[in-house]
């Protein structure tokens, strides 16, 4: 049993049965899963959720699956870190890091959306799953497919980081490298889904896939003690996660699980790919696609599929956006690592850097609870740190040499986090 | 309050107060924390543990801390994966993977021992923590120190994998590269601990540090539903974890938390560094140190500090050991990834390869529950996979090119996990 009502054109309002579907036939807009919230009331409660498994599946009543989960049984329920050292450094009162760099099994937020999509692929009877990806999604699809015993074919831009390539290849998928950027890969995947009858998770399973991203928001609320942060800073790539965290917050409010504190949403982008932030700054109704050029490759999506909704939700919520340069991104990666022991990829550095800018500019007040959403792991993008840590001279294994080194370097370098 | 009784010479039986201590003064042997198990009875129960936090600190009554934990509040409680696809492939009935490659915050089992050691460093009033490390330990010490606001100085062999170097440098510790192998680094660290009054976690905090490794075993037992696996396969490097899993199992038996099913322990080593397995095969009472030469650098310790106890516990338990060659290690990494979606480092490949050898040789029967302990993450040792996945040709973002590629490659390659 589930509380799912229909697949509905987000703009058209046209209802469709629960089926693989990329867009609404009437207006070519997106489709979204709708639920019977009335039926949930009194049944989907804090207690019912707390009695569930320690994974994103504790929220299964708010996810579009009909039968038992078939993937991601250990995905989600990632740490919400109360970042007191970083809060002190930034002069803010209450700062949280929602850390999906520790997600399972592939160490990014994508494990949430893929867990739902792979389960749905089983329900629809597909034997092959695939995706268009900037790296993290292909990694996650490959890992989940391997664990579930499905075939996988993942499509990626030709210039991905080596770590991400090995990280996905090891699971044995077919990896197809495409000349072009993510937007080129994505366009090709729409055709592939139709022709090959594969479950391309972010194309023909997109309405189900994106619902998984709500769990990032659900967990923030539950882990804060059934409260919403007043300010949530989220990276914007294709535009899935921000609107879905927002939807998750609204669902929790609707069900009476949290109080409505009018949470505000903030979008974070790299300067080299910031169509959404540009639209916010220019107060434009629509965004203009861009050609990406940034070290934050996992969020380098110039034409975000759900960008319209990112803009809409940010504005509705009273939030805003910011962009970070490549050097600012690297600085923020180090700042987060040195204060909280968390090593994120450039996308996370972007989010952290933008949060800092929004705090410094006064857009986010220092005395209200702030949550920064970290969505990927730094171990997959080591290239981004090239040249940041010059190799130190190796010394002989002798006390005298050690003493001398300590004397020399203590004059020049104190550990940055002290 | 705690149940700690003393620090006791393991061989001499001499008791010491709870203090930083590397060895027993009377016989230069190791010292170990002892507890008052009688006082625990009826108080440390399945229920009391289940009511604890979702981290290794749920076992704090069996850990040597006096006050509140100061580190690793999110460490431990890693997935125990029921590996049904791999079990089927190997023809065994019940196979579990205890997956510390997903440990927090640094993605190896070392987060367990460091969480305890850093908490203890606070209790003893140290302001600097350090270690001798093959990589994972330095990574963990650096991350925990950053999060806790302690200074860190980590000592490593000069030839560590680049991923591990970046992975630790980002947290801002002082990193000292030493000419020589781990055993050389370790010897130097004993002198450093004395001279600098630093908490070298695996030297002068070793008795406390090692206790953290018990939690790997506690979690296996609790996650199996308060049962012990009949066979546990564990990598052997310095020799900390195998004896401590064994001690954890025995403590749970002593406290009546699990039934005594006579669990057997198996040691896994790389062929290029297998002093313990050689001693087992030669039925020698003591092991002979070796000069390591293997891709499994994180377990390349030729003179294991606690090797004597590894041998002793393996023999007492009725277990055995095996070694794996570098190619076998790489094959096992891929096998685990392709069947269970878990990407481990060469140490984990070693453990998996050795488990397979022990099963194939009949040392481990196919019809009894087996647990394989995976202790580190493959994303930190990407170099080990160099040449395993030749880069495929990039194709234009056109359907005709995609069709052709699929046609070509479907004739030559099926995804390995199908």
Automatic annotation (TrEMBL), chains A, B:
Keyword Lyase included in the entry's annotation: yes
GO molecular function, one term: threonine deaminase activity
Required cofactor names: pyridoxal 5'-phosphate
SUPFAM superfamilies xrefs: Tryptophan synthase beta subunit-like PLP-dependent enzymes
InterPro entries from the UniProt entry: Ser/Thr_Dehydratase, Thr_synthase-like, TrpB-like_PALP, TrpB-like_PALP_sf
Pfam families: PALP (PF00291)
Keywords: Lyase, Pyridoxal phosphate
Residue intervals passing through the bilayer: none
Residues of the Tryptophan synthase beta chain-like PALP domain: 75-376
Residues modified to N6-(pyridoxal phosphate)lysine: 110
Top-rank lineage group of the source organism: Bacteria
EC numbers: 4.2.3.1
GO terms (BP aspect): isoleucine biosynthetic process; L-serine catabolic process; L-threonine catabolic process; threonine biosynthetic process
Similarity comment text for this entry: Belongs to the threonine synthase family.
UniProt cross-references to NCBIfam families, sorted A to Z: thrC
Protein name: Threonine synthase
Organism for this UniProt entry: Algisphaera agarilytica
């Amino acid at each position: 049993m589930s509380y799912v009502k229909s697949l509905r054109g987000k703009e058209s309002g046209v209802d469709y049965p629960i089926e693989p579907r990329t867009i609404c036939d009437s207006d070519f807009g997106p489709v979204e899963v709708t639920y019977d919230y009335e039926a949930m009331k009194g049944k989907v409660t804090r207690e019912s959720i707390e009695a569930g498994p320690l994974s994103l599946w504790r929220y299964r009543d708010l996810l579009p699956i009909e039968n038992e989960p078939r993937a991601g049984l250990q995905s989600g329920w990632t740490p919400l870190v109360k970042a007191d050292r970083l809060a002190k450094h930034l002069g803010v009162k209450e700062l949280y890091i929602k850390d999906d760099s520790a997600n399972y099994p592939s160490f990014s937020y994508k494990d949430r959306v893929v867990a739902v999509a792979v389960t749905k692929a089983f329900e629809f009877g597909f034997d092959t799953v695939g995706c268009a990806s900037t790296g993290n999604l292909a990694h996650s699809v490959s890992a989940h497919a391997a664990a579930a015993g499905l075939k996988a074919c993942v499509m990626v831009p030709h210039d991905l980081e080596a770590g991400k390539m090995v990280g996905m290849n090891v699971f044995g998928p077919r990896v197809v490298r495409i000349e072009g950027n993510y937007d080129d890969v994505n366009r090709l995947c729409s055709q592939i889904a139709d022709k090959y009858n594969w479950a391309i998770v972010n194309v023909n399973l997109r309405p189900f896939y994106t619902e998984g991203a709500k769990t990032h928001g659900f967990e923030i609320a539950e882990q804060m003690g059934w409260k919403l942060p007043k300010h949530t800073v989220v990276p914007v790539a294709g535009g899935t996660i921000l609107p879905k965290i927002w939807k998750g917050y609204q669902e929790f409010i609707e069900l009476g699980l949290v109080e409505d504190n009018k949470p505000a949403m903030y979008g974070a982008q790299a300067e080299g790919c910031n169509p959404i932030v540009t639209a916010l700054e220019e107060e434009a109704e629509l965004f203009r696609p861009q050609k990406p050029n940034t070290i934050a490759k996992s969020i380098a999506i110039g034409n975000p599929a759900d960008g319209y909704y990112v803009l809409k939700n940010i504005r509705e919520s009273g939030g805003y956006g910011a962009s970070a340069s490549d050097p600012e991104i690297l600085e923020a990666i180090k700042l987060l690592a040195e204060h909280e022991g968390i090593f994120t990829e450039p996308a996370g550095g972007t989010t952290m850097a933008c949060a800092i800018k929004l705090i410094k500019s006064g857009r986010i007040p220092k005395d209200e609870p702030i949550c920064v959403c970290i969505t990927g792991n730094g171990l997959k993008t080591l290239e981004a740190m090239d040249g940041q840590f010059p190799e130190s001279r190796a010394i002989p294994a002798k006390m005298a040499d050690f003493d001398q080194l300590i004397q020399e370097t203590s004059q020049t370098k104190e550990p940055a986090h002290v």
